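Quick one:
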Amino acid sequence: MIVSSVSYRLLIMVPETLFTLPVATGAVIVGPLLIGAAILLLIGVGAVYLSGGRKRTRRFIDGSVGKPKGDIERDPLDQKSTEELRLQAGELLVAADNAVQSSDQELLFASASYGDEQVAPFQEDLNQARKHLSESFRLQQQVDSADDADESRSRDLYKQIVRSCEQVNETLQSHKDQFDQLRNLERDPTPALNELVQQLDRLRDRRARAGSALTSLIEHYSDDALGQYRDNLHQAGTSLEAAEDSRAQASAAVEQGNTAEAVVALHSGEQATADAQRLLESMEEAAERLKSAAKNIDVGIAQTEQDLAQAKATYQAGQAPELAGPIAAAENAVSRAKRALDSGQRIDPLELLQQLELAHRELDLPLNSVRDRQAQDRRAREMLQHELLTARHQVQSSLDFLRSRRYGVSSTARTRMAEAERCLTEAQTVGDSQPSRAVELAQQAKTLAVQAAQIAEREAATAQMQSMGGGYGTGGGFGGFGYPGRHRPMGYGGGFGYGRRRRRGFF
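Output:
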């Protein structure tokens, strides 16, 4: 009989007495039975041993022996340094923001071609993606406001930003195939080309009206008041020129039967017209804000004078000696506003209102210490509409600036802008129930919007110098933002959205 090496090792481990043959009568019969039983026992023990060995080997291969359970499902982000996480979160925020904006533009044209009902599922995707993007910016704002010494907290927030941006990508990609089928431009780009032509005609007329409106606005408002309006008018013209160039390229490509090139040009043209449309909308809103501000200056003066009277009485009673400086500043703001109105010259009504509001704010700090809560709320209600008006103006102006230069703007400026929008929305929501809180939020929105524009202006200037020009890219289309190549965010691969081809190195 041949004994395996494993069986042999087991045999030598069995006590020697087990194999001692009897010397009495019957040894010939009993001995073999004992040996047979022993061999059967060894075979069973060997099977158990081998089975256990295979299990142990399997556990070893699976890495579960001597390894904490948590290490099996370790988050790959934990292997990155804090600086790598910061960079990854920033890149993904920029990519997600661009993807949402590009998707919004794509839906505008899809809706114009196929109707709101056809694009409803994609609009739901976009709305959900906006919520994830808003959450991402909220988390980034927490990082920016956190204590630099709390590295663990920062790492946790960066990881949450990455996951939240991933949700933006996943949401925009959830109906990619259906959108591709709906808007298969390579099958027939002619309808989209016709829609682009019509859109360009409408926007040219609209820009012409905006230019005519500027002539009337110049009669009433100063150059400083109209600076953003003029800039938007120029930017809208640049966008329409780029759109017309793309339309011409698309038309030529269609005539040549080159549908792929036609699609690239169409998407560039659509993006440029969408930018022009937003700028024109902002100009129309700015004109209304200037008119509203001009009507409210008299009210602002009256309210400031009312506060001045209370402040002087309080100061003269010796209750708040720190009011001396704010009283002088408020008197100066009122005098300046009255002179501007009486001069008959062109004014900046938003700037005059802003100066009056600053004077209010300086007076309110010491006055609130002697006012009761009802009086504070009453004062806040009087200020709120003016604060909201100037906040909306500043937020919209900064937003226009960022949108028109978004390919050179980092996550820092975008985060400030998103937080400014959030503060303004909350101020408008809680105004009736918490007027004091609403005023604070409106003021915070203005501050953040100014910071966003300042950061974006520096970054856009740097990007312009580095690129020495540039133009319109395709912007990503409707869908996710995992671009291939050197512009791809860390951790992403694959395509870059619904049906878009990329022509320039923008991201």
